[in-house]
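step=predict obj=DNA binding protein with helix-turn-helix domain n=279
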Amino acid sequence: MIDRIGLAEFLRTRREALQPEDVGLPRGRRRRTNGLRREEVALLCHMSTDYYARLERERGPQPSPQMLTAIALGLHLSLDERDHLFRLAGHNPPARGAFSEHISPGLLRILDRLSDTPAEIVTELGETLRQTPMGVALTGDTTNFTGPARSTGYRWFTDPASRLIHAPEEHEFLSRMYASGLREIVTLRGPDSRAAHLAELLLAQSEEFRRLWNGHEIGVRPHEVKHYVHPDVGALELHCQRLIDPGQSHALLVYTAVPGTESYDRLQVLSVIGSQVSH
């Protein structure tokens, strides 16, 4: 049963505790509001201001688990706070651990400060949970896929278009890496896991994956330097730094170019193109 008063008070106090710079928003010169404005939270949660405002005013329908997940991410809630939010709204909290898609506040704070850098947060199955604007400019919006296609590795073996962004000379290695990585996750998570289900789908759909899977190769790690072929700026040589959140099995991937190189200059051009598209 929903606790409307408790839910409204909790949302209001969490909103007022956040500052614009905490979530990657500009402060502006005429700000008088304590913490974030309701319209700013609604923007972060990908919902209408009216819908969010009604929750703070103890009105409106009972929010769905999907809405609560969006609010928890938008307000940068910890896992304990997320679970409290779900209970206030009359729902059981989602599972924690490797299967959770709740991003830790610390990882979100780092991502919010990387707005001018290609970066993304992904699950252990390569499902993109959040991207910076420059991340979208580099690889396209990869958060909108549904079902098995949310996984980068699944798309790699089932959608030829997913390979176009990568230099052809890297394709063979990336195929080996995705197959090897999935096998390790299946072993770690067990035969009833989402990883095992993904492997079953790929075994049925991709001859290349079957061949690599049957080779039982383990330990093929991503290269630090990645080579992209962007449709607007051309070849990019980017260094990928990986920050792991062991509690959630999520990774923050940050892509940078060496200053003074062609890739660095092209990344600056891409930032201009990305800002034009976002506006």
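step=describe
The chain is about 45% helix and 10% strand.
step=end
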